[in-house]
Every structure is written in C-alpha cells, then in structure tokens.
Amino acid sequence: MHILPIIPARFESERFPGKLLKRYCGPTVISWPIAACLAAFQQCFVLTDNTELAEEASAHDADALLIEGDYRNGTERIADACNRLNVDDDTLIMHVQGDEVGLIPEDLKRLAQVVMDRHEVGTLFYRTDDEKLLKSLDHVKCWRGQILKAADGVLVSCGESWRFSRARNVPTHEEGQGFIHVGVYCYRRSLLHGYMARWPTDDEKCERLEQLRWDVPIIAYEVAPCKSINVPEDLEH
User: Fold this and answer.
1) If I label 31, which of 45, 55, 135, 158 is the partner at 20 to 30 A Cα–Cα?
2) Contact between 48 and 9 (Cβ < 8 Å)
3) Burial class of residue 95 in the structure, from the number of CB atoms within 10 Å of its CB (0-12 exposed, 13-18 middle, 19+ buried)
C-alpha cells in the first residue's frame, strides 16, 4: 500500500501567524516535520497558500504544491489536493501538522502499519502531568472513558471513540496524568469522501478541531512527549 505523507501548511495560523517560518533550534519550524516524513517514507508533500513556505519546503526536498481555496481546516485542503493529484482511494494518507517539531520517524512508520489493515483514523498522544500543558487552551487534550491495550501495545477504542478538546477541565488519568494530542492523523484516502460530505459539527466549530468531524472510530497509540509550536513561547528550547 502506498503511503503519502502530506503537511498542510497555512501561513496565517490563528494563534501564531507565520510560525512555520520561525526558527526552532536553528532550522525553521516546517523543516522538522518535513525531515521526519522524509526519514520515514522518503517522500513528503507540503500544501500551502504561501510562496515563501513553498520555497522553504522545496529547499528541504519536499514536494511543494501551491493550493488556494476556501478551506476550513487542513483535512479539507488535503481532500482537495487528493482530487487534483488523482490519489487512489487505497492510498494511506499520513496527515502531519506543520508545527510538530518533535516527531520521531519510527512512530510515523508504526502508525502507518497500525492503520494499514483498518478502516479507521489513527493518531498519536503522550502522557504528562505538566499542569501548564494540561490547562493550556493552546494544547489539545484527548481522553476516553475506557481504554484497552491490544497485544501490539496500541490503545484501541472500546465502545466509544477518542474525545478531543482544548478545554482546561478535561479528565485526567492515574496520578493526575493527562493525554496531550499529537498533530498527526493517518487514514485511507477513501475516508475523505465521507468527511467532506458532512457539514462541520457544532463541536468542530466551537473547538476549532478538524478531527471532531470524523464519523469513523479514531484509534491512538502512545509516544514519548512530543514538542509542538503553538505560541511564541514554544520556540524556547
């Protein structure tokens, strides 16, 4: 099965405009997830509406595609690009957010392997007891009422899908730990047809979280704490 890593890279992010071209530990923010995708899959597409971002992506050996439209989120941008590129329905899309600077290529490969034989959306999370992160409206938290661990270590939905929110009062787990969502999604291209056929949900519009529109189960597995850039303060090492 072909795996296609795609980074939707919008210049005017709501909380930190232009952040993908800021520098983190030397390289630009966007260059970090590009490097992780290339190391994992030897390919990376960057979808953007900004020529400077396209040039930066190309400079780091990614395939840059300038694409403009009235998109509500990165998933809609990817759906349009898949139509333009005639991507096959069986292709596995690795949707990576451009501000994830701490991704490990082996985690991306494992996520692809987990989702390959399923008809669900896969994602990543990590545990933390850092109250600043858990109470930040800039970091997305995730949780679920019941968690089962499969033989391969993947946390699989049991009766209900993962829940996501930016709120400060989401449930915590043992010893006060909470789950922070990592901005990576993996799914078959065919699932995008159903996503685009649905209107944005009230929760999606309120939370500004694209994953709240999926009508298929979301599975997840745990990774080590993973740095993302949401606000200027996150550029600190």
Assistant:
1) 135
2) yes
3) buried
Secondary structure class of 150 (helix, strand, coil):
coil
Exposed/middle/buried for residue 217 (C-beta within 10 Å: 0-12, 13-18, 19+): middle
**Cα–Cα distance between 108 and 36 in angstroms, integer?**
8
- For residues 109 and 201, give the distance between their C-alpha atoms in angstroms, rounded to a whole number: 31
Number of Cα atoms under 13 Å in the Cβ half of residue 197: 6
Spatial neighbors of 116 by CB under 8 A, at least 6 apart, are 1, 92
For residue 180, what are the CA distances in angstroms to 55, 59, 171?
Answer: 31, 31, 12
- Provide the pLDDT confidence category of residue 159 given band limits of 50, 70 and 90: very low
Question: How far is 41 from 95, CA to CA, in rounded Å?
Answer: 13
- Enter the pTM of the model: 0.91
Q: State the Cα angle at 216 between 104 and 165, rounded to 5°.
A: 65
pLDDT number for residue 153 = 54
DSSP calls for 152-218: TS-EE-SSS--EEE--S-----GGG-EEEEEEEEEEETTHHHHHHHSPPPHHHHHHT-GGGG--S-E
Q: What is the pLDDT of residue 117?
A: 77
172, pLDDT greater than 70: yes
Sign of CA dihedral 45, 203, 146, 177: positive
pLDDT tens across 33-56, in order? 999 999 999 999 999 999 999 999
DSSP, res 28: B
Q: 130 and 198 in contact (C-beta within 8 Å)?
A: no
